[in-house]
Each structure stands twice: as structure tokens, then as C-alpha cells.
Amino acid sequence: MFLLLDPAARPVVAHRGNSAHAPEDTLESLRQGMALGADAIEFDVRLTRDGRVVVIHDPTVDRTTSGTGAVANMRLTELQSLDAGYRFTRDGGRTFPWRGRGITISTLDAVLEEFRQTPMIVEIKSADAAPETKRLLEHFGVSAHVLVGSFRSDALAPFRDSPVACTAARDDIIRLFARALLPGAPRTLPFQALCIPPVFNGIPLPVLRFAAMARRAGVCTHVWTVDDPARAKHYWDGGVNAMISNDPGALLAASGRPALRPQPFVVQ
């Protein structure tokens, strides 16, 4: 059974890689997450001006790179000329340890090539990226161990009735929240996994109630972003399946699985 759909599994998922310690959504961060011993990786995708799927969270490059501008308005060559480690800091901006070390924005092709056998959650941030993402998942033959997520129902539409498992969209979560106010639980749900934050649109979610409802319908619950080991234990004890964490090493230790040490970064 696919790990992220296994009701008996309690995986640790590296959120945008080992993003508490390396530039998020980069190959280096994803490599570190897996080197630590994480069970799966999670990352975000968008579409470039020239139709390439790239791994980046924000609609612009401003927060994470040396450049400025919208991802959708830039060609792949422009994006990959930027330093994707430029703004990473762990001390409030006093130091920037990843500047000038060759970290770039990756294509989805490159991630799938390197992590073909790795369970992963692919978060589609813009609906226009969905068709090409689907094509690439099929091309690399990884559909059986990928969970596709998005808040947008239109981004998930191409994957419905396909071999690729999908998470709940925003509309699904809203309906489930309304259902949580009633006794009992739905017998079926229109998604294969429930990936939720503790707070949604400023409203605290009843995470454990959601997990119990999903479990009765045969659906796993994954929570993001969980970096506190005590909170992770609370969720695991309450029936949540996966913890999606910026600091997977800390959660691995909390779950009794000593984290390994990432290999030193080498510019390829």
C-alpha cells in the first residue's frame, strides 16, 4: 500500500524538504529531508511563462531568491539564473549561509528524476500547472506513490478519476468543517487523503475530530506544518497519520527514530 494512504502508517514528511535548515523547495532541501530519514517529501509547483513546471511556493520569486517578479511571467532560464538560497536565514537576517552556493530553482522533471522511488506530496499552486504536472507524473511512472494536493478544485480536476491520489481541496475542507458540527461521520469522502493545517483561513480546525471522521471513511489525515515534537505526539496519539514538518529531524527523534545526518552540500 502507498505509504501516504496507509491508515496504519505514521510517516514524517519533509515540508518543502528540510526547510528549517536549507532553502525551501530546492533540490538540496529535498535531499536533506530524505538523508535525515524522512518517509516522504512535500513540495510546491507552478508554471513558467514558457510552460515548464518549476518547484517554488510563492507566486513571485521575491521572498526566496535574489530576484523579483512573478514566476508566471518568467522563462525557465531567467528563473534558474537566480540564487534560490539568497534570502535563507536562521538568525533573523544576520547571516545568509546559502548565498552564492549554486542553489537554483528546480524543475519538476529534475525532482522526479532524482526521487522516482520516493513517496511525495505535490502541491499545485496554480491551476495552469496541473495538466503538465499530470503529464510528467505519468512520463516518469511515479503516479502510484504521489499524492497531489491543492486548495484549488480546478487544479485537482485533471487528476480526478486518474491513478493519482488527491487530497481535499478548500471546498472539501469547508464542507467537512460543517459536517464536523453534526454527530456521526460521513461513510465516504471525495478525496483520498485529508491534508490540513491546524488553522484554516484564521479559523482553528478540530484536527482530531477531522482525523476521526476521515478514519471512519477510510481516509488518512496529514497535518501541516508541525515542527513541535509535543504537538506531533498529541496528533499521533489522536489518530493523525502524517506530520508534514519543516524540521523532520526533530520529529523523527520524537517518534523514536534517530535522524541521520545530511551529507555536505556539493555544487553539482
Structural account:
There is one protein chain. This protein has 268 residues and is an alpha/beta fold. It is 27% helix and 17% strand. It contains 9 helices and 12 strands. The protein has helices at residues 27-36, 76-80, 108-114, 130-139, 153-156, 170-180, 207-216, 229-237, 248-254; strands at residues 12-15, 40-47, 53-55, 106-107, 120-124, 146-149, 165-166, 193-196, 199-200, 203-204, 220-224, 242-245. Strands 1, 2, 3, 4, 5, 6, 7, 8, 11 and 12 form a 10-stranded mixed β-sheet that branches. The protein has a two-stranded antiparallel ribbon with strand order 9-10. Helix 8 crosses helix 9 (248-254). The radius of gyration is 18 Å and the shape is globular. The model has no long low-confidence stretch (mean pLDDT 94).
Cα shape: globular
N/C terminus separation: 34 Å
Note poorly predicted spans. Answer: none
SSE sequence, one letter per element: EHEEHEHEHEHEHEEEHEHEH
Query: What percentage of residues falls in helices of 4 or more residues?
Result: 25-40%
Structural class: alpha/beta
Number of helices: 9
Query: Could you state the oligomeric state of the chains shown?
Result: single chain
Radius of gyration from the CA trace? 18 Å
